[in-house]
Amino acid sequence: MYENQVGELRKGQQVRQTCGNKLCVSPKHLEVSLPREGRTPLSEAGQYKGSRQREDYLERCANGHDWTIETLHIDPKGRRICRQCQSESYRRKKGYDASHTWRRRKSWEETPECVNGHSYEEYGWYFNGEARVCRKCFAQKERARWLRTLYGMTPEDVEGMLIRQGFSCAICGTIFDPDVSERTYCVDHSHSTGQVRALLCRICNLGLGHFKEDVERLRSAAAYLEYYEGLQAPLNE
Question: Cα-atom radius of gyration of the chain, to the nearest Å?
Answer without folding.
Answer: 37
